Amino acid sequence: MMALDPFYPIFDSADWLERLLPLGIKLVQLRIKDSDEQALRAEIRRARDLCARYRCQLIVNDYWRLAIEEGCDFIHLGQEDLDVADLKAIAEAGLKLGISSHDEAELDRALAANPDYIALGPIYPTILKKMKWEQQGLERLTAWKARIGDIPLVAIGGMSVERAPGAFAAGADIVSVVTDITLNADPEARVTEWIAATRGHMR
């Protein structure tokens, strides 16, 4: 398994990457919803080039065809994405794969796809999107980690700098964050706090 940075922010535009990658982010997801293909392609291309410049691992959410076409090497799929994605084409293109999971059945499905990480969430209540899933809690992180072994486990959902130590202690290898940065009054300062808080957890 490749080593992935323990700090994994998610942003909805390349503007955020341009603004925050210089601070030292080494693992980032571009997650864009509801955009036309031309705009999507431009954003993915820009994010790819920014990540190359700052030696950051880019993970593209959902749009695996565009990721392949634009020379990206890592995608993230939700369970709904798995319904329609061509996992064989993704593997043949050499892309690494992260997958979301929320319950035992979804974990089984994720493991069958031979992923490079598995995300579990929401660990805490999240304001980002309406979830049909209740918060998972730290205990489930511990149970998931026992099941998946060496596969990196990502904790996501309601995560903050203050909650990160508990997630790592429960078994998470990586903590993923969205609104704790993007809604912060000083995103730059918050990213710096995150990097300091997670640096000791590199596998």
Characterize this entry briefly.
The protein is an alpha/beta fold and 203 residues long.
Layout: helices, strands, pairs:
Layout: E1 7-11, H1 14-20, E2 27-30, H2 37-53, E3 57-61, H3 64-69, E4 74-77, H4 79-84, H5 87-92, E5 96-101, H6 104-112, E6 117-120, H7 138-148, E7 153-155, H8 164-170, E8 174-177, H9 179-182, H10 187-198
Parallel strand pairs: 1-2, 1-8, 2-3, 3-4, 4-5, 5-6, 6-7, 7-8
Overview of this protein structure:
It is built from 10 helices and 8 strands. The protein has helices at 14-20, 37-53, 64-69, 79-84, 87-92, 104-112, 138-148, 164-170, 179-182, 187-198, and strands spanning 7-11, 27-30, 57-61, 74-77, 96-101, 117-120, 153-155, 174-177. It has an 8-stranded parallel barrel with strand order 1-2-3-4-5-6-7-8, surrounded by 6 helices. It is globular and about 40 Å long. 41% of the residues are buried.
Total strands: the figure is 8
As a percent range, the share of strand residues is 15-25%
Structural class: alpha/beta
The helix-strand sequence is: EHEHEHEHHEHEHEHEHH
- Counted by DSSP, the helix tally is 10
How large is the radius of gyration? Answer: 16 Å
Oligomer: single chain
Distance between the termini: 10 Å
Mean pLDDT: 94
**Principal-axis shape:** globular
Biggest beta sheet summary: 8 strands, parallel, barrel
Q: Return residue spans where pLDDT drops below 50 for at least 5 consecutive residues.
A: none
Query: Largest beta sheet: what is the strand line-up?
Result: 1-2-3-4-5-6-7-8
- Give the helix level as a range of percent: 40-55%
